[in-house]
Design brief:
By secondary structure, this protein is mainly alpha-helical. The chain has a domain of about 35 residues. The chain is elongated, with a radius of gyration of 22 Å. The protein starts with 19 loop residues before the first helix and ends with a helix. The relative contact order is 0.07.
Length: about 50
């Protein structure tokens, strides 16, 4: 009878670790505010375009 061999995951199985710059931009309040308004403008374009 064959034994089950337990092996660890390969390095490729884990997600990449974010760099310092990536962490900075993810936490940046100014970028989040800008992206909030950009997203709202995109949504408004879709809504207004559908009602014309």
């Amino acid at each position: 009878m064959a034994k089950n061999i337990v092996r660890g995951f390969n390095e490729e199985a884990y997600p990449p670790i974010p760099t310092r710059a990536t962490k900075f931009w993810r936490r940046s309040i100014m970028k989040q505010i800008i992206m909030f308004f950009v997203l709202n403008l995109r949504i408004m374009r879709i809504i207004v375009g559908g009602h014309s």
